[in-house]
Design goal:
Helix content: under 10%
Oligomer: single chain
Strand order of the largest sheet: 8-7-6-5-4-3-2-1-14-13-12-11-10-9
Largest sheet: 14 strands, antiparallel
Strand content: over 45%
Radius of gyration: 17 Å
Shape: globular
Structural class: mainly beta
Number of domains: 1
Amino acid sequence: MKYHVLGLFFLIFTSLTVSDISATTREIFTGRVFYKNSAKDEPVYIQKETERIQGKTKEILHEYYDNSGNLAAYELVQLNQGEIEYYRIEIFALDVFGEISRNGESMVIRQVQGDKDRSRTHKWEDSLLMGPLLPTFISQNRKDLARGESFNIELPFLDTQRTIPFRLKQIRLDQETRTMVVEMSIRNILLVNLIEPVEFLVALDTGRILEIHGPTILPDPGSRRQKDLLEADIYYTYQ
């Protein structure tokens, strides 16, 4: 069985109240999610990123909608002065909910699936990222990546309530199109054959993620097995 992790890429914002009037909310991009190496006729999912800022707090939300327009999954990261405070993910078809709560130099990683509620406490990892944080991280470090520098990061793996080490590195640079391909691959030798790499096509001038190719956190609606996750080609447009 293969475990596909995209650090993973999603929480519904609470409806704004009178006290939220000072908050600023904007949609950043829309992604069209297709089966990998398929005809690009009809997307399997539509991805949306929304950013909400209020005072020193920023929330980055990734939502995935199926072909019927129903919310299939979401991921939320909450930052306070640029530091991760809280992360939450829910995948409805898999009946999975997960969260990471930070408390100073420690964190609790929790997963709830059906009637199973499991959690572990770990030392905080400064290199920890989640799906909604990857675009900004790659964009901010694109010059170093283009020069050949690599970055070691950790992504949450909620099934075991642990983090998994990954490496980001540039594997292809095209000065003519002003793009590069950044690969995210596992650093754990024991898991290298279980978790496939993910490739990001990045615009060198803007830092925007133009495409993503590889495994996702999303269920494959065409599979008979509920736990099979989607191998995808994702194409982005920006607001």
